[in-house]
């Protein structure tokens, strides 16, 4: 089984990713955690963990044996510019560079809709700018990548149905459950390879929507 490092494993979306991957026959999740007290949660789930922080400099231990990375960390739009820059931009860039050095096979980034036009959303501009810089660095890194830019995240139960496009041209929301599934589906090598795409809730089943998008 391929070991998948989940960055942001203790977040709302990260936990969903871990839970799904923990029942996978193909992938083994490894939770990246910041604090000693977070170990118990993953020990209870029988999930491996590594202790690392996005503000540190050396990620070689965290990436040992890792085949792919899902970056689901985020400071959130309510966080101040300084912390956002440290986590969503500088932290992401550092672990992208470390993943390249570790010869990781694929890097999957959870970004945000609007990251291509941060100035259009003044309330979230600092957050979207940080996401945009991280996305740009990933695209230029030489790593195989997928960048997912979902609409507003909700805690509603997932529907398993989405609307996907490189640029949707409209806003919308999407349950975290469905975002987790989209990120996990992106682990499959032929799907959405070296693509950036937006996602909101819709009418098409996730699997067929991903296959169709990959052909575009």
By CATH, the architecture is named: 3-Layer(aba) Sandwich
Spatial order of the strands forming the largest sheet: 3-2-1-4-5-6-10-8-11
Given as residue ranges, the uncertain stretches (5+ residues, pLDDT < 50) are none
**What string gives the helices and strands in order?**
EHEHEEHEHEEEEHEEH
Cα radius of gyration in angstroms: 16 Å
CATH C-level label: Alpha Beta
Number of domains: 1
Mean pLDDT: 93
**Please, what is the CATH homologous superfamily?**
NAD(P)-binding Rossmann-like Domain
Query: What structural class do you assign from the helix and strand content?
Result: alpha/beta
Number of beta-strand segments: 11
User: Beta-strand level of the residues, as a percent range?
Assistant: 15-25%
Give the helix proportion (percent range).
Answer: 25-40%
Please report the distance between the alpha carbons of the first and last residues: 29 Å
Features:
216 residues; alpha/beta; Rossmann fold; nine-stranded mixed beta sheet; 11 strands; 24% strand; globular
Give a short synopsis of this structure.
Helices cover 34% and strands 24% of the residues. The chain is an alpha/beta fold.
Description of the structure:
It is a single chain. Helix 4 links the parallel strand 5 (106-110) and strand 6. It is globular, with a radius of gyration of 16 Å. It contains six helices and eleven strands. The longest helix is centred in the middle third of the chain and has 21 residues, at 81-101. It has one domain: NAD(P)-binding Rossmann-like Domain (Rossmann fold, 3-Layer(aba) Sandwich). With 216 residues, the chain is α/β, with parallel strands linked by helices. The model has no long low-confidence stretch (mean pLDDT 93). It has a nine-stranded mixed β-sheet, with helices on both faces. The chain has a two-stranded parallel ribbon with strand order 7-9.
């Amino acid at each position: 089984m391929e070991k998948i490092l989940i960055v942001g494993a203790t977040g709302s979306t990260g936990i969903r990713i871990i839970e799904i991957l923990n029942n996978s026959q193909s992938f083994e999740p490894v939770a990246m955690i910041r604090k000693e007290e977070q170990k118990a949660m993953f020990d209870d789930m029988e999930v491996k963990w590594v202790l690392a922080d996005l503000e540190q400099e050396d990620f070689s231990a965290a990436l040992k044996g890792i085949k792919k990375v899902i970056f689901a960390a985020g400071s959130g739009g309510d966080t101040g510019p300084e912390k956002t820059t440290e986590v969503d931009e500088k932290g992401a860039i550092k672990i992208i560079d470390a993943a390249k050095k570790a010869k990781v096979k694929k890097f999957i980034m959870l970004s945000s809709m609007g990251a291509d036009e941060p100035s259009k959303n003044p309330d979230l501009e600092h957050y979207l700018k940080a996401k945009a810089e991280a996305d740009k660095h990933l695209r230029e890194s030489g790593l195989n990548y997928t960048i997912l830019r979902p609409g507003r995240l909700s805690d509603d139960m997932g529907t398993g149905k989405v609307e996907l496009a490189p640029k949707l041209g409209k806003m919308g929301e999407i349950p975290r459950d469905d975002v987790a599934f989209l990120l996990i589906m992106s682990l499959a090598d032929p799907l959405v390879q070296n693509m950036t795409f937006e996602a909101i809730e819709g009418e098409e089943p996730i699997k067929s929507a991903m296959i169709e998008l990959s052909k575009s």
